[in-house]
Amino acid sequence: MQSATATPRASDAPRQGLGTFFRNILDFIYERGHKAEVLERVSPRTRQLCDKPPGWFSWVPSVHIDELEAAFLTVAGRDMTVELGRVCSQNLGTTVVRPVLRMAFLLLGQTPAVVFENLDRFFALVTRGITFSYTAESPRSGVVLARFDGPDTPEAAYHVLQGSLQFIFEQCGVSGEVGPAEVAESGSAGATVRYRVRW
Q1: 41-47 long-range CB contacts below 8 Å, 24 or more apart?
Q2: CA atoms of 20 and 37, how far apart (whole Å)
Q3: What are the Cα distances from residue 196, in Å, to 47, 56, 69?
Q4: I want to staple 41 with a disulfide (CB 3.0 to 4.6 A). Which of 71, 77, 127, 160 is the partner?
Q5: For 145, what's the count of Cα atoms within 13 Å in the CB-facing half-sphere?
Q6: What is the pLDDT of residues 19-73, one digit of tens each?
């Protein structure tokens, strides 16, 4: 049985992120000079994790990632939070996710639609507790629906995901646009968010 002060296990959290993702978020925040402002807005447990980051391939309870992203949104604003998502995905897309992306492009073609239709496969490498569906509205546009498991997903997470989806266009070598998050529903079981994409 865990004590009240014990650090929650990643497996107990409805959403989780790979240690590599957590470290990429930290790097982005620190490189932009917001370390002190962000750290003073997060819990002691999250601060402790920032001082001694998790292993690259360990799983981190999403509460720590949520706190960092929410604090960064407060300090730096929405546009920079979207950019955080784009840059972190760029780093992951050229390391952890790259082999799977390559295989998908080889088998199915290098188009944004291919990636949007297979988001669960790619995101499962770095996150748990977020699932996706894609509905094409034309050959070059559609709607991505993202489901965040568990209560209290912060607004910042939606902006980070918008930036992550934006990176897909870069990976495919095309210009495109991801619309802002539209919250379809939010409750104790989770939240469903919609993004309109076109290229």
Answers
A1: 41/67, 41/70, 41/71, 41/74, 41/75, 42/67, 42/68, 42/71, 43/67, 45/7
A2: 22
A3: 35, 32, 22
A4: 71
A5: 8
A6: 999 999 999 999 999 999 999 999 999 999 999 999 999 999 999 999 999 999 9
Q: Which two tokens stand for residue 107?
A: 């088998």
Cβ atoms within 10 Å, residue 168:
26
Q: Do residues 41 and 74 touch, judged by C-beta distance below 8 A? A: yes
CATH topology for 14-198 is H-NOX domain (3.90.1520)
Write down the pTM of the prediction: 0.90
The amino acid at 116: F
Tokens coding 102: 């390559």
